[in-house]
Design a protein that fits this description.
The protein contains 9 helices and 9 strands. It is α/β, with parallel strands linked by helices. The chain folds into 2 domains: about 170 residues, Aldolase class I (TIM Barrel); about 80 residues, no CATH class. Helix 5 links the parallel strand 4 and strand 5. Helix 2 runs parallel beside helix 4.
Length: about 270
């Protein structure tokens, strides 16, 4: 691993965050922290973040009152500006992350205003990111089509595009697989799966691997039985585990309500 991103929940609430960053840094790993900025000041930077490679601050509108409407947190820009200055003293790159939401930072003029705000704060770059397709969805390809590669195709050019607004570095993070008029459904799409490391320390294959899991109808029926209290959660988990040929019950052990199935894993 070359890079590690520590994100949320809110990583700055972790009492030993500085030890985690320092330990990873000593291994030669670049450490990035994504935070809502609520605890950032120059003292916190010096005490906790000094070994970080970069910090991403999630601020979704250049107006702090409007950002508070989204996040529930009121940031003090003068304190934040001082914290960013302290980060630069430690060689830490700072990026502002902005989720584009209808009614907030949702058009080119507001994004230019956000750039002015980012420059004033002293940030090094901005990421404007799409949210899922809903009534709040802001189509970045629609807004930035003139800044995208000619004939932009996300399946060729990728869903992360580096560009500039008023000569300020900006990254556009488009939702992968989201079909719009700029992103048509690909012909004969291939489902790619890979092993995923879960919280129990084990690797599991992706959900969509053909032939690996129970039929969807069987799963729905099983979950309906759990909902109707015909079987317990533990019994259902063990049944799924047996079908997956991963969870092996302990010999002589009958599942009880509240049991954690052998093998565990978030996929249960």
């Amino acid at each position: 691993m070359k890079n590690v991103v520590l994100l949320g929940g809110e990583p700055t609430l972790k009492p030993n965050l500085e030890k985690i960053i320092e330990a990873l840094s000593c291994l030669g790993i670049c450490v990035y922290v994504t935070t809502n900025g609520s605890l950032l000041d120059s003292e916190y930077v010096a005490a906790v973040l000094r070994h970080a490679t970069g910090v991403n601050i999630s601020i979704h509108d250049y107006d702090m009152g409007r950002n508070q409407d989204i996040t529930g947190i009121l940031l003090k820009t003068d304190v934040l500006r001082g914290a960013i200055g302290a980060m630069h003293c430690h060689g830490i790159k700072v990026r502002l992350n902005c989720n584009c939401i209808k009614g907030f930072t949702d058009d080119y003029s507001r994004m230019r205003a956000y750039v002015v705000f980012a420059r004033w704060l002293g940030a090094d770059s901005i990421r404007f990111a799409e949210l899922k397709h809903s009534v709040q969805f802001v189509d970045l390809a629609e807004i930035f089509y003139k800044l995208l590669p000619v004939g932009y195709d996300p399946y060729v050019d990728g869903c992360s595009i580096d560009t500039r607004i008023d000569n300020f570095p900006v990254n556009l993070r488009l939702m992968c697989g989201m079909q719009t008029r700029f992103r048509k459904m690909p012909k004969n799409p291939e489902q790619i799966t890979s092993d995923v490391l879960y919280y129990d320390g084990l690797f599991y294959s992706g959900w969509q691997k053909e032939g690996a899991y129970m039929d969807d109808k069987d799963l729905v029926s099983l979950l309906r039985d759990v909902h109707n209290q015909k079987i317990s959660v533990a019994e259902a988990a063990l049944k799924i585990g047996r079908e997956m040929k991963t969870a092996t019950p302990t010999p002589g052990h009958e599942p009880r309500k509240g049991d954690i199935p052998p093998g565990g894993g978030c996929r249960y």
